[in-house]
Description:
Elements: H1 2-11, E1 15-20, E2 23-28, E3 38-41, E4 47-48, E5 68-71, E6 76-79, E7 95-96, E8 101-107, E9 110-115, E10 120-125, E11 131-133, E12 138-142
Antiparallel strand pairs: 1-2, 2-3, 3-4, 5-12, 6-8, 6-11, 7-10, 8-9, 10-12
Amino acid sequence: MADLASLMDEFGLQEAFWATAEGSVAFSRNAPTLAGSVHVTTPTGEPEPAPPVTVAAPSPALEVPKGTPVSSPMIGIFYGASSPGTPPFVKLGDVVSAGHVVGLIEAMKVFNEITAPVAGTITEILAEGGQLVQPGEPLLYIA
């Protein structure tokens, strides 16, 4: 039964039913009477005491990066440096001014400079060199 509960978590199921020759088990996260209740029956149809069900605690909320996002203006390939052997435009903790080049996006064989919209410190870099990025996707954060 623990495997069935694990599968419900893994696939985000609200209800599951499992039947064998020995009996059947029905799990429901949103049962009208009691959320998370378990109903177990034997082949004779008589109810069997249900084992306790433990529900995993919800995962902690993801930490939202602080600062101003620098987002991709277009679809293309992101590059954090002008060429493979050169240092990156910015590193974590670097202080930049508004207009400072923080990366390149290659679209249709044209390299477009991505600049910092504000002055501040690079607090997080999300995009990796050679990664396909979409319009509006945050590349890094400046605080």
